[in-house]
């Protein structure tokens, strides 16, 4: 629910001793990350919750989604003026405005910190995490120990600010892999079918911009038992839910047999079901790399990948397409098989597999200066589990 224009939001201190937690939602991708975090805190009577929508070009549709959480939605300008005990971000932008927050924590919406923006690593580059030379965030959560070391090398002022907690989304994906047969059936793939995943990020340097029409058109030349599923980054749709030009051109060239994962549907089912992946440099490809499956890269735009990052390492160990051709990708995948260094890659982008929930929860309660509550009987876990399964299967 929201507030009427001009209405003053309720004071965060009105609930007495309750600690006030604010989720700053930028777009659909960050929203899903914050939703996972909220599951770890919801139900604690010592906490009160609210959300705000930060200015973001890709923020359309988030207000209705946040409304389903049942949280008050505070106007952004008013939210920056309130003394929150904990402000949680899953995307950069506006954090420096929350000067009255007791703690500001950044929870990344991907793993591997491998994407370059304006010549810097988008997760830990100094222009994104420092203000007047000082860290913007009280704490930044990181998925891996090696990731923390790389971040502190990139921006030394972050030393002591990074907490290694694992990755909630990766842990969910590992659980979904146990139901791979169901995920394949939902995509219409039979036991004898070979399912090829196109893992596409967004922007002018991504797969769809550089190779989309040619790659999708070439699906017509694949053998009948080969199925193709395309998972574009949600930012490939505009604010009205229409495909942006890169995606629109690719879809116009694609045969009807290509399965498109919609904007709001989870990526997990497709990534669990696929037999091999063709990818660019989006961090979801690292999640697919947790499986011993063939992978083929498309050429990336210049300066798109952070040197020395897990994505850089992944691209170095997988074959690269010389032309936008799925038949060639299939040939390369069958010829090279599973990249030999794949098993050693996982520790570079995710530590403590299966432990992200308690580690993240513990770090949040430490920032709130509260003891972690014990499990409560019937704390909505059955409902939350069903909700996660629906999100993962789509």
Mind explaining what this structure looks like?
The structure is a single chain. This protein is an alpha/beta fold. The chain has 15 helices and 15 strands. The chain has helices spanning 28-41, 62-67, 76-81, 126-129, 145-154, 168-176, 180-186, 207-217, 245-253, 268-273, 284-288, 310-317, 326-336, 356-368, 381-393, and strands at residues 19-25, 47-53, 86-89, 104-106, 116-117, 120-121, 130-131, 134-135, 139-142, 162-164, 194-200, 226-232, 259-260, 276-279, 295-297. Helix 8 (207-217) packs parallel to helix 9 (245-253). Residues 1-15 and 376-394 have low confidence and may be disordered.
Describe the structure using short key phrases.
single chain, about 400 residues, alpha/beta, 6-stranded parallel beta sheet, 5-stranded parallel beta sheet, 15 helices, disordered C terminus
Work out the helicity level.
25-40%
Placed side by side, the strands forming the largest sheet appear as 2-1-3-4-9-10
What is the percentage of strand-forming residues?
A: 5-15%
**Rounded mean pLDDT score:** 88
Low-confidence stretches: 1-15, 376-394
Number of contiguous helices: 15
The gross shape turns out to be globular
Q: What is the succession of H and E elements?
A: EHEHHEEEEHEEEHEHHEHEHEHEHEHHHH
Structural class estimated from helices and strands: alpha/beta
**Strand runs, count:** 15
Q: First CA to last CA: what distance?
A: 25 Å
Largest sheet: 6 strands, parallel
Rg, nearest Å: 21 Å
